[in-house]
């Protein structure tokens, strides 16, 4: 708060002390300096200070292009895209416009266009914007943000300086349009969420073939938001990503759980071969890494680094490291210091920590977890389907024929025959397809569903086997397991699994129907929860 | 009573009785005499024949007889019995005993009392009393009996009976009696002459005005007349007998007559030929009986025949998937002159519509070709059967225009989007049954798993037998589907062959299974292995068939949707074009057209929305390719456009049109991507084949274009050499030929051609166009083309000359005599000579191709010809391969023939190169490359779902194959000049513009 008052005063003094002769006209020069100050504050995520400085600047030089530029920048960061476009266009149209005005105006326009016709939902700490067809996302996003904000407050003592803006875009193309990433980068690295310009930019799980862990991803970005705010955006990428990855599941579980199997697989391979990604290579963004595999490995590494720090000093060590970085200390030194070590010691300790985890490799694990659907599939509004992202290897082979036959029979309520065809397909997976991730999970998923239809939940769980563990980012194993638990009289167990499914893909009506049923069977569940799931079950089934 | 009264009363009674008897006798005998007399006269009349005197004679005879009878029977007796004294005397004769007394009593009563010899009154009275008393017992009836009268009446009755019998039984007598009372016509009354009555007959015909025929005179006629109905004939002849009156007696009995005029030795008469008849000349001499001809002359009123009309179309029954312009050839001829020639169209059972093609304007023959677009008349129904024919009217104003009609041709437009639903529904039904069979079999396998021994085998046999029976029934359904297709041809080639293959394989499998079932029954486990093998084979077959059928259904449906999408974007492009033109011209008819097409577009969008909803609801397509556009938004945009047009808000039309275009383009892309993705995954082999062929066609095209460049370069060098060689002469030539062309142009400009629709006018117009082209080409120093144009002009003028000859011949036939000289023929002949001269000049001046090439260039031309031969050979090979590999693929059937067409042009190019004619070679090479390019585009479109959706005209086969491109354009330009109906004018114009591009 003190910093917020001091800066405008300093700005006022600076403006008053401007030389009166030479260079640009005094008013213009003063406005430019003031605008630079405001811009610096905005860049450092010091939004309250920036707002005060901007107000002062607008009083002294309201019509200066620089003032309009920073006014537009501020509006852009606070989500007033229309206002931002107007101000930035005005700034860009000036005889000598601020250099960033045009590009920022374009970004603001893209942001405005991307959220046109969006709905808005507000909670204690967040403003969530979403497309009408993605209405099912809103309550889960809201609950998650609130839970995550509480966890971050506990862990990092983070209090959002203004409502956290969350925007859920229709497609990765929209995400690319509103971010500084290119469409190619988004496609190559599978980036589907970003935190930049004081907002969480998240792609709807509808745009991905299997959905994706969208709630974890949203929380991941929220951690970035918190770290950027707490560190005055001075934390380097590796630290940012390490903290975000380490804390991304905090909204639903304690810190320090195991890393995802895909990460484990890559990290195990990298540790064996000694080909880890360097921290330098992670700059300026994980999304700039050459492949999704590299990005995943990098995330695994940095998550382990933070886990190691956490193992040394708990959340306090994390907070200490952030504070040191905010104060201007080098991130490596800050982290090492927070761990009570020197950087070389920390590095050795971190590697030993990773080795001690005894990570293992998995056959046929799907590394590219973000299977972006085709543009026409997204544009059609159709819900994600299992067949959308099956590999071409599988589709070209004989097993796929049995898969299709099974699907056709199941759709005609001939589950016994469908199961027989799926079994044939599972048996027909040859060596060529054995390493194919989709062939590893599709038949267990289909068989699980078919056994459920046959009223044999135990066989369904058995058919799923280890799929749920190896592919935690797939929604269907969770769903089928949840339905099986429900059928076996374990609604509480079912709720956890079904929520895990929602956390991947909330567009499947079956998950809401099962969840409504499960909630209804657990005594003490609020009626609103049951009603909400019933509503989604009905709406999604009817295609609304 | 007094004695006097009694005597007078008696006498009166006697008198009356006597008079009665006498009257009856007179009547009886008179009638008898009349009857006999009439019979005798009748018989005489029969012999004499009808004559005007018979009624008079008969009347006179009858009157005389009646008068005689009255005189003899009534008047004379009455006179004789006048007075009581006469009566007394007569009565006295009848009753002699009283004669004296009665007479005395009468005389005494009459004598005056003061007469000298008078008796005393009392005595007289007593005497009279006595006489009266004596008369008392005598009655007049007894005194005057009527026997004689009865006899007379009997004679009359007998005579009359005889007469009646004669009339009834003796026709001669009857005719004779009729003759007695019949006043005869001139025909009847005249004497019959077997010799001619007239000579030197000269007949002048004046034809109805509408025929346009001049009057015609026939000298030395037989008197028979023959001409078109309505013709007036003037007969002029010389009577061979002196006559006071003359007439023409019409009909076999002379029922009507035409008065003839006699002047000097000339007889003239006028008549109008309205129907076939006969006539005879009738002459009446000053003295004596009239005479008429025995043999009649014939009047023949020739009917005006209806026009003869012929039609030529692409096929008698043309089947199209979408409405496309149809080329129609027609010819009509009439004996006297044609009026309107129309195309008559009937869509389904709706009223006929007429499209005016040409006004015959009195020509006896017209012919032409037209392109008729059925699109505007086709409704939105699933299929339309359009009957079309040519109808021509003549110009008969007398009995009304007669209509001639050609045979009727048909075009059936089966909208594939409509028909496909039924077809897919049937296939889906089959698919469902096959899936059921598969499910039954697969489930049945699971049920007996682990079962062994005789009992298990029996159970298995029983289960499989039931499934087997069910599947046989489903196979019968498949058979019916194929059978229906044989009759209706509703399935495509691919589907037909796939289904037929399925039917064969399933049937074979079922036969094997039936044998295995029979073998396994009652044999425990012995036949089980064979049965299981047969059943497994059936499962495998069903699995294959289900997947195959599902693929085919999916492709059909996605193709249908993609083609609908394409149609919508095409329709939008048309709207855009209309809007642009409307904005330029502000033509209100364009605006109306715009509004109409916008409404149609909306309706089609609604159709697509309905289809998409159905596809979604029925899971016809796997979910992966069920990426459907949000048509609500598109419909809203279309409505917005419609509203703007309705409100006349022109300002926002562009924006609304652009927005709708974006939406439609997005929609089409989405539908195309569905089909593309589906095809790539489900029909990879087919797609590979098409892709491979497309690539090879692309390679051929590239090679051909490369060669064309080389040939073009050679052609330019050859042209340059030509120019160089002619440099010295070129200016002179240009000047000289330019003047000749100018003279030709002027000659043609003033040439009268009559109706602008006539064939003559067309040819003259073609010649004019060629002259214009000649001038342009000469200015461009393109002597070869200028020469070709001169030859074309010459040909056109030759044909024009032929038309003029035909016209002159027709005139001669109408008027008789020698054909009159037509100044136009001279002018055309002169112009033709000028065109020929220009062509000859250019031909003489132009060196031979080989003369304008250096030996190296000739060598290069040979090399290019070799290269062209090699490309042509590859093209032929590819055509064969395409026929083999694409022949059965829907929408690809014509690829082979298109390739052959390109190959033919390549051969022409090679031939030209061998003749050192590089310019036509370059043209043929360019055309071949263009054909390959078009084929590749078509294949690309087919793979994107746009197969068979084009609006190229359907032409008459073989009609234009030899036409050069320019000639074709000329023909189109000519066709453009033909006026289309107001409603279609805009569309027709746009259509031609597109073609000419």
Describe the structure.
- The complex is a heterodimer of chains A (544) and B (997).
- Chain A has 544 residues and is mainly alpha-helical.
- Chain A has helices at residues 2-16, 26-43, 47-60, 65-78, 81-92, 101-114, 137-156, 172-178, 183-189, 214-230, 237-247, 261-273, 292-326, 331-339, 343-356, 375-379, 392-396, 398-411, 415-428, 431-434, 437-453, 457-464, 467-470, 475-487, 491-502, 509-521, 527-542; strands at residues 119-122, 126-130, 164-169, 193-196, 199-203.
- In chain A, strands 1-2-3-5-4 form a five-stranded mixed beta sheet.
- In chain A, helix 7 links the parallel strand 2 (126-130) and strand 3 (164-169).
- The longest helix of chain A has 35 residues, at 292-326.
- Chain A starts with a helix and ends with a helix.
- Chain B is built from 26 helices and 21 strands.
- In chain B, the strands form four sheets. In chain B, strands 1, 4, 6, 7, 10, 11 and 12 form a seven-stranded mixed beta sheet that branches. In chain B, strands 14, 16, 17, 19, 20 and 21 form a six-stranded mixed beta sheet that branches.
- The N and C termini of chain B lie far apart (138 Å).
- Classes of the chains: A mainly alpha (544), B alpha+beta (997).
- The interface between A and B is medium-sized, with 25 and 30 residues.
């Amino acid at each position: 708060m003190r910093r917020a008052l001091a800066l405008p005063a300093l700005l006022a003094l600076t403006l008053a002390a401007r030389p009166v002769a030479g260079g640009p006209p005094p008013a213009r020069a003063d406005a430019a300096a003031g605008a630079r100050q405001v811009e610096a504050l905005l860049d450092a995520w010091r939004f309250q200070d920036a707002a005060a400085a901007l107000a002062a600047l607008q009083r002294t030089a309201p019509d200066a292009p620089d003032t309009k530029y920073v006014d537009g920048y501020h509006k852009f960061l606070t989500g007033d895209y229309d206002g931002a476009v107007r101000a930035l266009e005005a700034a860009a149209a000036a005889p000598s416009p601020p250099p960033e005005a045009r590009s920022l105006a374009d970004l603001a326009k893209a942001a405005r266009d991307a959220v046109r016709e969006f709905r808005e939902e507000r909670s204690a700490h967040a403003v969530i914007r979403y497309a009408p067809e993605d209405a099912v996302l809103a309550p889960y996003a809201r609950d998650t943000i609130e839970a995550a904000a509480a966890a971050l407050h506990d862990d990092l003592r983070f209090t959002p300086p203004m409502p956290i803006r969350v925007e859920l875009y229709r497609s990765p193309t929209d995400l690319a349009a509103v971010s500084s990433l290119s469409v190619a980068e988004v496609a190559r690295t599978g980036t589907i969420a970003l935190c930049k310009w004081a907002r969480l930019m998240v792609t709807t799980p509808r745009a991905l073939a299997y959905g994706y862990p969208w709630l974890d991803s949203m929380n991941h970005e929220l951690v970035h938001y918190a770290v950027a705010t707490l560190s005055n955006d001075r934390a380097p990428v590796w630290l940012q990503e390490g903290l975000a990855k380490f804390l991304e599941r905090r909204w639903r579980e304690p810190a320090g759980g195991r890393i995802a199997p895909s990460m484990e697989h890559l990290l195990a391979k990298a540790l064996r071969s000694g080909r880890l990604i360097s921290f330098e290579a992670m700059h300026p963004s994980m999304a700039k890494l050459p492949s999704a595999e590299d990005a995943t490995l990098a995330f695994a590494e940095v998550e382990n680094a933070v886990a190691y720090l956490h193992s040394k000093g708990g959340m306090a060590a994390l907070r200490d490291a952030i504070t040191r970085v905010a104060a201007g200390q080098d991130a490596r030194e800050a982290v090492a210091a927070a761990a009570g070590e020197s950087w070389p010691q920390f590095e050795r300790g971190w590697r030993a920590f990773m080795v001690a985890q005894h990570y293992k490799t998995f056959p046929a694990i799907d590394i590219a977890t973000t299977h972006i659907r085709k543009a026409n599939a997204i544009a059609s509004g159709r819900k994600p389907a299992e067949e959308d992202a099956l590999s071409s290897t599988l589709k070209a082979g004989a097993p796929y024929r049995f898969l299709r036959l099974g699907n056709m029979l199941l759709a005609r309520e001939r589950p016994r025959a469908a199961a027989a065809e799926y079994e044939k397909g599972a048996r027909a997976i040859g060596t060529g397809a054995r390493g194919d991730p989709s062939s590893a999970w599709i038949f267990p998923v289909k068989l699980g569903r078919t056994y459920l239809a046959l009223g044999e939940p135990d066989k369904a769980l058995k058919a799923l086997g280890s799929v749920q563990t190896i592919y935690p980012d797939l929604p269907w194993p969770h769903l089928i397991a949840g339905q099986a638990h429900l059928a076996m009289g374990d609604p509480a167990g079912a709720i956890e699994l079904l929520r895990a499914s929602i956390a991947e893909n909330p567009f499947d009506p079956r998950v809401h129907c099962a969840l409504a049923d499960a909630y209804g069977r657990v005594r003490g569940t609020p009626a609103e929860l049951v009603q909400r799931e019933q509503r989604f079950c009905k709406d999604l089934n009817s295609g609304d | 009573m007094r004695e006097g009264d009694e005597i007078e009363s008696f006498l009166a009674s006697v008198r009356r009785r006597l008079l009665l008897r006498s009257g009856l006798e007179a009547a009886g005998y008179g009638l008898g005499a009349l009857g006999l007399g009439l019979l005798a006269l009748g018989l005489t009349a029969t012999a004499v024949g009808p004559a005007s005197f018979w009624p008079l004679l008969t009347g006179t005879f009858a009157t005389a007889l009646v008068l005689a009878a009255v005189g003899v029977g009534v008047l004379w007796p009455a006179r004789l019995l006048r007075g009581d004294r006469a009566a007394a005397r007569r009565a006295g004769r009848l009753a002699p005993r009283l004669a004296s007394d009665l007479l005395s009593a009468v005389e005494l009563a009459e004598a005056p009392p003061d007469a000298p010899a008078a008796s005393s009154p009392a005595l007289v009275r007593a005497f009279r009393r006595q006489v009266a008393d004596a008369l008392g017992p005598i009655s007049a009836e007894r005194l005057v009996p009527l026997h004689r009268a009865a006899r007379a009446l009997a004679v009359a009755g007998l005579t009359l009976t005889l007469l009646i019998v004669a009339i009834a039984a003796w026709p001669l007598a009857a005719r004779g009696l009729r003759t007695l009372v019949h006043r005869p016509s001139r025909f009847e009354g005249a004497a019959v002459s077997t010799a001619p009555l007239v000579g030197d007959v000269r007949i002048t015909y004046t034809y109805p005005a509408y025929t346009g025929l001049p009057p015609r005179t026939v000298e030395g006629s037989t008197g028979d007349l023959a001409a078109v109905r309505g013709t007036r004939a003037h007969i002029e002849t010389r009577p061979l007998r002196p006559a006071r009156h003359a007439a023409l007696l019409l009909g076999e009995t002379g029922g009507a007559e035409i008065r003839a005029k006699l002047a000097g030795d000339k007889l003239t008469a006028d008549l109008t030929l309205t129907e076939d008849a006969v006539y005879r000349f009738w002459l009446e001499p000053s003295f004596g009986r009239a005479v008429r001809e025995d043999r009649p002359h014939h009047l023949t009123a020739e009917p005006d025949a209806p026009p003869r009309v012929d039609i030529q179309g692409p096929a008698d029954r043309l089947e199209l998937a979408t409405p496309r312009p149809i080329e129609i050839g027609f010819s009509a001829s009439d004996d006297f002159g044609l009026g309107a020639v129309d195309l008559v169209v009937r869509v389904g059972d709706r009223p006929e519509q007429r499209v005016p093609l040409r006004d015959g304007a009195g020509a006896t023959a017209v012919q032409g070709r037209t392109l008729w677009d059925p699109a505007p008349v086709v409704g939105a129904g699933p299929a339309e059967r359009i009957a079309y024919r040519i109808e021509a009217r003549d110009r008969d104003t007398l009995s009304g225009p007669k209509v001639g009609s050609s045979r009727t041709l048909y075009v059936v437009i089966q909208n594939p989007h409509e028909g496909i639903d039924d077809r897919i529904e049937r296939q889906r039904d089959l698919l469902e049954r096959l899936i059921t069979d598969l499910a039954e079999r697969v489930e049945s396998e699971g049920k007996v798993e682990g079962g062994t021994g005789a009992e298990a085998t029996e159970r298995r046999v029983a289960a499989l037998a039931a499934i087997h029976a069910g599947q046989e029934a489903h196979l019968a359904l498949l058979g019916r589907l194929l059978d229906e297709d044989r009759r209706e041809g509703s399935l495509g080639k691919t589907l037909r062959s796939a289904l037929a293959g399925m039917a064969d394989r399933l049937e074979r499998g079922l036969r094997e299974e039936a044998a295995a079932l029979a073998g396994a029954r009652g044999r425990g486990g012995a036949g089980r292995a064979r049965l299981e093998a047969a059943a497994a084979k059936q499962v495998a077959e069903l699995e294959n068939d289900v997947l195959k059928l599902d693929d085919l259904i999916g492709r059909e449906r996605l193709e249908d949707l993609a083609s609908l999408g394409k149609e919508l974007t095409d329709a939008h492009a048309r709207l855009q074009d209309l809007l642009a033109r409307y904005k330029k011209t502000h033509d209100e008819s364009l605006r109306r057209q715009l509004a109409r097409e916008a409404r149609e577009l909306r309706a089609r969008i609604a159709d697509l929305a309905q289809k998409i909803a159905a596809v979604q609801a029925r899971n016809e397509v796997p979910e992966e390719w069920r990426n459907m556009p949000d048509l609500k938004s598109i419909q809203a945009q279309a409505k917005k456009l419609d509203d703007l047009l309705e409100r006349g808000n022109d300002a926002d039309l562009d924006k609304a049109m652009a927005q709708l275009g974006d939406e439609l383009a997005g929609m089409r892309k989405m539908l195309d991507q569905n089909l593309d993705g589906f095809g790539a995954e489900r029909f990879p082999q087919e797609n590979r084949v098409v892709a491979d062929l497309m690539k090879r066609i692309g390679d051929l095209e590239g090679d051909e274009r490369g060669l064309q460049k080389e040939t073009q370069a050679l052609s330019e060098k050859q042209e340059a050499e030509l120019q160089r060689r002619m440099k010295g002469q070129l200016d002179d030539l240009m000047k000289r030929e330019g003047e000749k062309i100018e003279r030709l142009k002027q000659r043609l400009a003033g040439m009268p051609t009559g109706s602008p629709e006539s064939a003559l006018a067309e040819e003259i117009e073609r010649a004019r166009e060629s002259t214009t082209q000649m001038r342009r080409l000469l200015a461009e120093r393109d002597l070869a083309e200028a020469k070709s144009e001169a030859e074309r002009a010459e040909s056109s003028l030759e044909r024009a000359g032929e038309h003029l000859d035909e016209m002159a011949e027709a005139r001669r036939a109408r008027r008789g005599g020698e054909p009159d000289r037509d100044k136009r023929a001279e002018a055309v002949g002169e112009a033709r000579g000028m065109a020929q001269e220009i062509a000859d000049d250019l031909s003489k001046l132009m060196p031979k191709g080989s003369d304008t090439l250096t030996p190296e260039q000739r060598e290069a031309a040979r090399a290019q010809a070799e290269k062209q031969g090699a490309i042509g050979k590859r093209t032929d090979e590819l055509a064969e391969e395409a026929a083999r590999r694409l022949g059965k693929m829907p929408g690809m059937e014509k690829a082979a023939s298109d390739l052959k067409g390109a190959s033919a042009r390549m051969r022409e190019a090679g031939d030209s190169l061998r003749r050192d004619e590089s310019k036509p070679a370059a043209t043929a090479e360019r055309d071949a490359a263009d054909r390959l390019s078009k084929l590749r585009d078509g294949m690309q479109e087919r793979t994107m779902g746009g197969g068979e959706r084009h609006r190229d005209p359907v032409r008459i086969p073989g009609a234009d194959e030899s036409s050069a491109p320019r000639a074709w354009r000329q023909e189109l330009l000519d066709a453009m000049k033909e006026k289309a109906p107001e409603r279609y004018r805009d569309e027709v114009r746009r259509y031609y513009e597109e073609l000419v591009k």
